[in-house]
């Protein structure tokens, strides 16, 4: 009876704002796909180079023996792009730690952190929720001291000249 060898893979995630990218990194032929599409078809096109940055920085030879499948959801297009980029870097690092050696993992980590810390560390900034009393998170409605609709006390109404004229006619 043949024993089936467990597949060597790691699963990591990258986050930016509301966007979440989950990367599955396994032994393969160097294919990187995002939601089933190759890396060179990811939109928006002007920011596509951001996805290639870690590959150029670390060298394509580190990626040639690995397949990456990345699922990205939520958030906007730019947030998703940065989440994918982080998932690629964290996935490579986790794979090297688990299946290659600690020295090359540390080498990769130092390179990534030296270039841009956001490759490995998620940005904690989030959108602040809107509160009552205004139309934004911090903006308040403008305060007015001259209110249009107000009521005068009854004693003042009786002392107004117009009111006195009206009362005398009755």
Main traits of this protein?
170 residues; alpha+beta; five-stranded mixed sheet; 18% strand
Biggest β-sheet: count, sense, barrel? Answer: 5 strands, mixed
Q: What ranges have pLDDT less than 50 throughout 5 or more consecutive residues? A: none
Taken from the alpha-carbon principal axes, the silhouette is rod-shaped
- Strands across the major sheet, in which order? 1-2-5-3-4
Count of helical stretches: 5
What Rg is obtained from the alpha carbons, in whole angstroms? 31 Å
**Total strand count, please?**
5
- Helix and strand content put the structural class at alpha+beta
Average of per-residue pLDDT values: 87
What is the distance, rounded to the nearest whole angstrom, between the alpha carbons of the first and last residues? Answer: 114 Å
Helix content: 25-40%
Task: Write up this protein.
The chain is an alpha+beta fold. Helices cover 36% and strands 18% of the residues. The protein is built from 5 helices and 5 strands, in the order ββββαβαααα. The chain has helices at 49-58, 77-99, 102-115, 154-159, 161-169; strands spanning 9-16, 19-27, 32-34, 37-38, 66-73. The chain has a 5-stranded mixed sheet with strand order 1-2-5-3-4. Helix 1 (49-58) packs parallel to helix 2 (77-99) and helix 2 packs antiparallel against helix 3 (102-115). The termini are far apart.
């Amino acid at each position: 009876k043949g024993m089936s060898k467990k597949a060597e893979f790691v699963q990591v995630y990258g986050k930016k704002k509301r966007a979440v990218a989950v990367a599955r990194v396994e032994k393969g032929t160097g294919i990187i796909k995002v939601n089933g599409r190759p890396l060179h078809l990811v939109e928006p096109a002007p920011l596509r180079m951001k996805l290639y940055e870690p590959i150029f920085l670390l060298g394509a030879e580190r990626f040639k023996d690995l397949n990456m499948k990345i699922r990205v959801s939520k958030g906007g297009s730019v947030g998703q792009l940065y989440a994918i980029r982080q998932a690629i870097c964290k996935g490579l690092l986790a794979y090297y730690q688990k299946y290659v050696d600690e020295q090359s993992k540390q080498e990769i980590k130092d390179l990534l952190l030296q270039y841009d810390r956001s490759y490995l560390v998620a940005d904690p900034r989030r959108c602040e929720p809107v509160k009552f009393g205004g139309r934004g998170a911090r903006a308040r409605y403008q305060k007015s001291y001259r209110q249009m609709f107000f009521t005068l006390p009854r004693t003042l109404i009786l002392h107004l000249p117009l009111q006195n004229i009206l009362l005398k006619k009755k």
